[in-house]
Amino acid sequence: MADEARFIISHIAEDFREMTPHGNEGYCCSGGGGAIPMGPPFKKRRMEAGKVKADQIRATGAKIVICPCHNCYDQCRDLGKEYDLGIKIMSFKEIFEEIMYIPEELKAKEEEEMEAGEGKEAEE
Known about the structure:
By secondary structure, the chain is mostly helical. It starts with a helix and ends with a helix. It has a two-stranded parallel ribbon. The radius of gyration is 19 Å and the shape is globular. It has one domain. It has helices at 2-12, 40-49, 51-60, 70-82, 92-99, 111-123; strands spanning 64-66, 88-90.
């Protein structure tokens, strides 16, 4: 799956920067395996273990980091703050939402809009 994701991103990103190493040989961010839900007492250890990934991210010079899973998303966001990486963490979903064109009439309505619409229908 990682190869397919890289293929897609390489076609939509203006400046795709691959980490070295990557794919099956890439470094773990150290946020998985239940480390994040363990809470504040375990955060120091997560940050220390994640320094290798933080250094790897910094070496790319990238400003946006795409994370494949929510554990990586949260961990890399925390690493960005801890090591002052100046990065924005995004998921594939967020990237696709930014580049996708959706006609106004097909966009989901906000709750306030839906409630206002219900009020108009009741008046009619």
